[in-house]
Design goal:
The protein is mainly α. It is built from 6 helices and no strands.
Length: 101
Amino acid sequence: MDNSTVEKIEQSRRDRTASHSRLLENSSSYGHFLEVEKSAFTPGSLTKRTKELMALSISIVTKCEPCIEWHVEQGRRLHFQNPRITAILGPRNSTVHCCQA
């Protein structure tokens, strides 16, 4: 993967972190969004792993790069195997190559 792709992904992560902090400080509704997200990803009828795969798939369909990056990262924390992520994103997606363990 070339350096410009890696830098783009890293910049997106920095932007997402900065936006998160800004929203926590300045938006009364963002906290409610985080509560819904936490509730949605609590294990229940579906495992957290299944929910993350679904969220990753939705992120791809909506073409939300920051969401894709976030859910690939969450998948790694849940010990997704790279072939499972690659099966969803496709073998040429730079996010997968960047986020592989």
